[in-house]
Design goal:
By secondary structure, the protein is mainly alpha-helical. The chain has one domain. The chain contains 11 helices and no strands. The protein starts with a helix and ends in a 7-residue tail after the last helix.
Length: about 250
């Protein structure tokens, strides 16, 4: 960041953005959610039939999810094309004034605080579906880690903070809209964490931080950078744990 840009930022008051008025609404949100879920079910069923037990390996599940997201974004592209609107800019994917390093560090600190909160909430130690997905397989750990700190945060921020949050903020107001979006975000991750309410609460709070960043900065790129920083700590530990345990690079 140049000294001139830093000075401009320091002397510019930071205020909440005005509630957005997206051209899409709840009908489009429900349609896109149904598109994703149906596509994921079809892709997962097809992979299961073709690959049998191999389909349970984590990297195949990441591929399934990525294909479903690809279909979803194709549907979104068509929706925005018909409306004659740019897809990514309409979803808030615009440059940010603050430095990437600072936002990544903030995300890492937020992740560390979440870990402490999980301990304070006496989160039980159980074998979660996420851990089962790793399947003691180094290839799965690598693919899941890369996905978790790259494509995963990008997709989730564009969909939750870019597509869903503006609709809810416009309908319910800034704070309720961000909070409701965060609750959906936390609920989506419950199945990966054995339905533990502690994990759901912590992820919801993290989602609220992402949503606030998106609203204050007006940018899903900003919330994505924060999200990447948040994910980098636990996913890096997941990968290091696999390397330490000497997981089979193919599968067991």
């Amino acid at each position: 960041m140049t000294p001139e840009l830093r000075s401009a930022i320091e002397h510019t008051p930071l205020v909440l953005a005005e509630p957005e008025e997206p051209f899409w609404g709840f009908g489009e949100v429900l349609t896109m959610a149904a598109t994703f879920l149906i596509t994921l079910a079809l892709v997962a069923g097809g992979f299961s039939g073709l690959l049998k037990d191999q389909a349970r390996l984590g990297y195949w599940q990441v591929i399934e999810e990525s294909l479903a997201y690809a279909v979803l974004f194709l549907a979104l592209k068509l929706l925005f094309f018909w409306a004659e609107k740019p897809l990514f800019r309409s979803l808030g994917w615009i440059p940010v004034a603050f430095g990437v390093q600072e936002m990544l560090l903030l995300g890492i600190l937020l992740s560390a605080a979440s870990s402490v909160l999980l301990l304070l909430l006496h989160t039980p130690e159980v074998h979660t579906p996420f851990e089962k997905m790793l399947n003691n397989d180094l290839a799965s750990r690598i693919v899941i880690t890369v996905f978790g700190i790259t494509l995963g945060p990008v997709v989730e921020e564009l969909l939750f903070r870019g597509f869903l949050q503006p609709v809810l903020v416009n309908a319910a107001g800034t704070f309720p809209g961000i909070l409701i979006t965060s609750c959906f975000f936390g609920a989506m991750h419950l199945s990966q964490n054995a339905g533990m309410w502690q994990s759901g609460l912590v992820i919801t709070l993290a989602g609220f931080a992402f949503g606030l960043m998106r609203h204050v900065m007006g940018s899903t790129r900003a919330s994505t950078i924060l999200h990447i920083g948040y994910n980098s700590l636990p996913f890096a530990l997941t990968l290091l744990q696999g390397l330490a345990q000497g997981a089979d690079p193919i599968h067991k």
